[in-house]
């Protein structure tokens, strides 16, 4: 048997937005934000509690109508430049 390495995603179903387009946007954006706990993983991959909080914040921003740039700027201001992949 040959095992294929598939990307790991740590987000939970309870985090998922009901609008498929908004959820796709959240998933795409979360792949560009570094987990400040793990640092080698995006928040999309990380299982750290802080990454879960960051994913929740990101989705709240999308629901509130913020642009991707505004969400990234907020996270960068809060966590520093290291948050950007």
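^ Assign residues to that structure.
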């Amino acid at each position: 048997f040959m095992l294929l390495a598939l990307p790991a995603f740590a987000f939970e179903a309870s985090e998922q937005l009901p609008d498929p387009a908004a959820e796709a946007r959240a998933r795409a954006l979360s792949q560009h934000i570094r987990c400040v706990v793990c640092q080698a993983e995006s928040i999309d991959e990380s299982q750290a509690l802080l990454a879960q909080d960051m994913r929740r914040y990101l989705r709240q921003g999308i629901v509130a109508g913020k642009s991707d740039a505004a969400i990234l700027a907020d996270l960068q201001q809060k966590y520093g430049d290291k948050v950007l992949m």
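The helical segments are 20-30, 49-63, 68-79.
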